[in-house]
Amino acid sequence: MPPGLKELDTPHESFVEFMQVDRDLLAVAAEASADLAPTGPSRDATLTWLAALDGGDKDRWLFQVLEGDGARLRWALRKRLRDELGATTHEAGERRTAGELVERTETLADERMRQQERERAERRRQKAERRAAARQRHLDKLVGREPEVWSQVAELIATVKPKAYDQAIVLLTDLRDLADRSGSRADWDARTRALREAHARKPSLLRRLDQLIP
After folding, report:
1. Measured between alpha carbons, how far is residue 80 from residues 39, 46, 73, 85, 90 in Å?
2. Could you tell me the pTM of the whole model?
3. Average of pLDDT values for 113-124?
4. Which of 28, 102, 126, 197 has CA atoms 20 to 30 A from the CA of 212?
């Protein structure tokens, strides 16, 4: 398992995207990947190795550099250095079969999906709490103004306009929630039933009231 899979650089990230490598499978493989660290012989060992090289070889290499072949020479020398002095290696760790990788990938995907669902549930809970708090602040502003709001309801219903009916239902909902909060729901029920009886010939309004009165 090569080192550094836990933190891919930009070229490798591009390769993963281009080849559409399964991210969960890559994460499973990375579990056995060591952290990326410098490999190869130390600086002092490299200098000692260079000092012991044949002078003729060095002259040929300098000529290659002058001829513009320095890049290929660099990699060739690095390979020879590793072959002769040995490179730092990472412990392979426990080997796993393809089936074990796939099974672990499925487990990881399930865990990720459960975590995402927990995060979505938490966002929904926080959103609901914010809505509830905003609702309570809105109701707080209406405390003591109930008679005024009932008057507004009557005025809106008297216009005999669908949009006005919708606005009346909004106000009646506010009054209902205030009544629930203050323990005066029976009074709200009675007044709303009275509205229904007084406007029994307005089917559009009655349909809207059905939303509030079972």
Report:
1. 14, 11, 10, 8, 20
2. 0.54
3. 95
4. 126
